[in-house]
Amino acid sequence: MIDIAYAEVPFLADRDLGCSDWMDVEQQQVDMFADAVADHQWIHVDPVKAASGPYGGPIVHGYLALALFEPLWRSVLAVRGGRSGAMLTDKVRFLSPVRVGSRVRLAASVSSILATADGFRLTVAAQVEIQGMEKPALAVQCRRDVLRDDPIAS
């Protein structure tokens, strides 16, 4: 994890941020996501039927794999005196299914930084990697806001 002071954020431009911690993706998460989005396809929620399917077991919804970006991001970059703001997604490519029971992590880099009225906007390229797999689950190009903590509002 990169842990920096808010004033150091501009120095992240053109920098590889490294990788997050590994995160386990379990069937309970998939089931809860299926309930939340009303997508109960057997390939996601029926481990017995999915075992005889094309992936040999259930797979994670693509949008759940994308949603994991946020908790994974928190173990990539910490900004003292700042906080994460909006994530504006520019491009997502789903590249490989994530089997339930897999471990994933985020690999990220910053290509540019724009100063804004409230802080900084980082242009980020990232991949959600699957442990033991050559091909990542997905690739994301996005903009992440880092906002200045306001001691008056706290």
How does this structure look, described?
The chain is α+β, with helices and mostly antiparallel strands. The protein has a domain of 107 residues: Thiol Ester Dehydrase, Chain A, CATH 3.10.129. Helices cover 20% and strands 42% of the residues. The chain has five helices and eight strands, in the order E-E-E-H-H-H-H-H-E-E-E-E-E. Strands 2, 3, 5, 6, 7 and 8 form a six-stranded antiparallel sheet that branches. A two-stranded parallel ribbon has the order 1-4. Strand 7 and strand 8 form a beta hairpin. The model has no long low-confidence stretch (mean pLDDT 95).
CATH topology of the domain at 9-25 and 59-148: Thiol Ester Dehydrase, Chain A
General shape: elongated
Relative strand content: 35-45%
CATH superfamily membership of the domain at 9-25 and 59-148, which one? Hotdog Thioesterase
Q: Give the biggest sheet.
A: 6 strands, antiparallel
Termini separation comes to 25 Å
Helicity, as a percent range:
10-25%
- Which stretches are poorly predicted, pLDDT < 50 over at least 5 residues? none
What value does the average pLDDT take?
Answer: 95
Number of helices: 5
Number-wise, the strands total 8
CATH class of the domain at 9-25 and 59-148 equals Alpha Beta
Radius of gyration: 17 Å
Order of helix and strand elements from N to C terminus? EEEHHHHHEEEEE
Class from helix and strand fractions: alpha+beta
CATH architecture of the domain at 9-25 and 59-148: Roll
